[in-house]
Amino acid sequence: MLVLHYTGMRTAEEAIARLRDPAARVSAHYVVEEDGAVWRLVPEERRAWHAGVSFWRGRERLNDRSIGIEVVNPGHDWGYRPFPALQMAAVCDLCLAILGRHPIPARNVVAHSDIAPERKRDPGELFDWEGLAANGVGLWPAGVDGSDPARPAGGMERAAALLARIGYRVEPARPEVALAAFQRHWRQERVDGAPDAGTLARLEAVLALCEGEAARAPARIGEGAG
């Protein structure tokens, strides 16, 4: 897996110092600054402590099976702002290099908020997932209108089922939490956890992309293609 985060601290220096502090018990493989500078903190073949309590597509303990990239941004608590073009270009180049070294399917290129929706919002609704996907990093439902605010009957039940099939852990008592995480990634026009028609359209489109990729993937001996 490839997991993208924002640092959520006031400066890059603060974030890097914390990621390098053994007492903090948090780390990531890479940090990308706003000017495009890239720092490697942990070799890719070693575990970094970036995912925490997490779940995706039936798997837990995602630190054991993922590479983590921290993208410098103060985050929602310190003045969330758009990610500069130079920074996104560096993120894209880094992701492509990682994907060239590791067989990570596009459906496993995710946000921290996707794998830990109860705890995390990063890298958030200003992150250019669409631009990354256009360059071969992750998935994006191109051309699918997400703006329809109509609220169809049974929308939340339908949304919860689609979320689970995509890979989210959906808490039965609070499905809107996972739905808001999906919106931060794939329906950024409005992040409110509401199962409107635009969100449902994007859910169905993303699921179709995930299932299409899984169907095309060669299976390892003893495993299914998913």
UniProtKB/TrEMBL annotation:
Identify the CDD domains for this entry.
PGRP
Transmembrane: is it a keyword of this entry?
Answer: no
Query: Does the keyword field hold Cell wall biogenesis/degradation?
Result: yes
The family database entries (InterPro entries) matched by this protein are listed as:
Amidase/PGRP_sf, Amidase_domain, NAMLAA_amidase_2, PGBD-like_sf, PGBDSf
Q: Which Pfam families match?
A: Amidase_2 (PF01510)
Q: Which UniProt keywords apply?
A: Cell wall biogenesis/degradation, Hydrolase
What Enzyme Commission number does this protein have?
A: 3.5.1.28
All copies of the N-acetylmuramoyl-L-alanine amidase domain together span 1-124
User: What catalytic reaction does the record list?
Assistant: Hydrolyzes the link between N-acetylmuramoyl residues and L-amino acid residues in certain cell-wall glycopeptides
Q: What class of enzyme is it?
A: hydrolase
Q: Which family does it belong to?
A: Belongs to the N-acetylmuramoyl-L-alanine amidase 2 family.
What's the protein here called?
N-acetylmuramoyl-L-alanine amidase
Source organism: Caldovatus aquaticus
